[in-house]
């Protein structure tokens, strides 16, 4: 089986991608430093796929630790690089933590891959690189703008490092710009685990619905959008995971080296208020909320033009907004019952 290194493979998108890699007949080599995800996620993945996965605990800021894995598994045909700190507000209060971790781990990986002759890399990027776009419906030609946070800047700088390194001719890389991944595996065994109060909208909605949170704060309804609340492009984490399989295949199949970027979103925009109402319709549970002041760094509106993902990868999202919210809700309930 073709072996693929998955960094941050016990994280939210990483774990769902590991499952889809196995479903597609690949052998993932999962590395994670367990700083953001508990080792328990490994057993959860194994419960879904019905077999053991290869895992190594690796601190990617230590290049020797990466070298050891690439030496142990010389047949690795490519890497998917998820490992990164990703909390926008934490990055504002601890920027060095973010620059050091997110950029050094990426550079260590690139150097180690070059030394081991591995040319294919899928990089986890984010729509945050578009900043506040002129036109909210962005395709990949939309200008990359000054980042709204150190986290966003590490994604932007990561892309630039990849682009410049690829230009030396040794790499074949795809940077996937995720919009807003939400939802969970239909089994409810893996999903978006939270460590304390949720930062993101959908986990906050599900925790409010289950009674863990008293009510949702809507950060501003005075934006220039159809109902005043911010507009985003929500995409099921399983659709995102499947796009990574197609990306790996695309790179492994292609002879020439190069660098490209691809948007991964549903192609549709939904406002915060629309998400609340969609959740209520999907679950028949009402979500108490109140309007709070705007959150620093929020972009008023952004959603993806996904034509390129369809053209280059043959990828089209399959899950509906109702699927996303229902799977997120089922995962929240399973967590409570501890059945998941
Ligand atoms: C969505 C909307 C909030 C919580 C972030 C990262 C991005 C990507 C996805 C990694 C905003 C509003 C939220 C709440 C609210 N991450 N909101 N009340 O900020 O669009 O994107 O996650 O790749 O890089 O920046 O996602 O879910 O935090 O917010 O009103 O309790 O929901 O203001 O308008 P965001 P989010």
Describe this structure in words.
- With 340 residues, this protein is α/β, with parallel strands linked by helices.
- The chain has two domains: 3-182 and 234-265 and 306-317, NAD(P)-binding Rossmann-like Domain (Rossmann fold); 201-231 and 268-303 and 327-339, UDP-galactose 4-epimerase, domain 1 (Alpha-Beta Complex).
- The protein is built from eleven helices and 15 strands.
- The strands form five sheets. A seven-stranded parallel β-sheet has the order 3-2-1-4-5-7-12, with helices on both faces. The chain has a two-stranded parallel ribbon with strand order 6-15.
- Helix 3 packs parallel to helix 5 (95-115) and helix 9 (272-283) packs across helix 11 (321-337).
- The protein is globular, with a radius of gyration of 19 Å.
- The protein starts with a strand and ends with a helix.
- The mean pLDDT is 96.
- UDP-4-deoxy-4-formamido-beta-L-arabinopyranose is lined by residues 86, 88, 126, 128, 178, 180, 199-201, 204, 216-219, 230, 232, 272, 295, 298.
């Amino acid at each position: 089986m073709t072996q693929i290194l998955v960094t941050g493979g016990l994280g939210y998108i990483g774990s769902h991608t590991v499952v889809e890699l196995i479903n597609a007949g690949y052998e993932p080599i999962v590395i994670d430093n367990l700083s953001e995800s508990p080792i328990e996620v490994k057993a959860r993945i194994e419960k879904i796929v019905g077999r053991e996965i290869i895992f190594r605990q690796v601190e990617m800021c230590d290049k020797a630790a990466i070298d050891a894995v690439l030496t142990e598994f010389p047949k690795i045909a490519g890497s998917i690089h998820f490992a990164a700190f990703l909390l926008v507000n934490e990055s504002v209060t601890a920027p060095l933590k973010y620059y050091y971790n997110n950029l050094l781990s990426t550079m260590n990986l690139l150097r180690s891959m070059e030394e081991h002759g591995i040319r294919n890399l899928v990089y986890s990027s984010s729509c945050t690189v578009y900043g506040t776009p002129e036109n909210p419906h962005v395709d990949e030609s939309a200008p990359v703008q000054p980042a709204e946070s150190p986290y966003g800047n590490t994604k932007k700088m990561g892309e630039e490092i990849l682009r410049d390194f690829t230009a030396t001719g040794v790499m074949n890389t795809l940077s996937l710009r995720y919009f807003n991944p939400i939802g969970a595996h239909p089994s409810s065994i893996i999903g978006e685990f939270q460590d304390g109060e949720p930062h993101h909208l959908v986990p906050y909605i599900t925790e409010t619905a289950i009674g863990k949170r008293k009510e949702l704060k809507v950060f501003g309804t005075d934006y220039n959008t159809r109902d005043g609340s911010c507009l985003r492009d929500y995409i099921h984490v399983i659709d995102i995971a499947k796009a990574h399989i197609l990306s790996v295949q695309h790179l492994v199949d292609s002879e020439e080296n190069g660098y490209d970027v691809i948007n991964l979103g549903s192609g549709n925009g939904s406002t915060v208020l629309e998400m609340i109402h969609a959740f209520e319709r999907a679950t028949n549970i009402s979500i108490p909320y109140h309007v709070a002041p705007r959150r620093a760094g929020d972009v008023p509106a952004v959603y993806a033009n996904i034509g390129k993902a369809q053209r280059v990868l043959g990828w089209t999202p399959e899950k509906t907004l109702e699927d996303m919210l229902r799977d997120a809700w089922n995962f929240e309930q399973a967590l409570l019952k501890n059945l998941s």
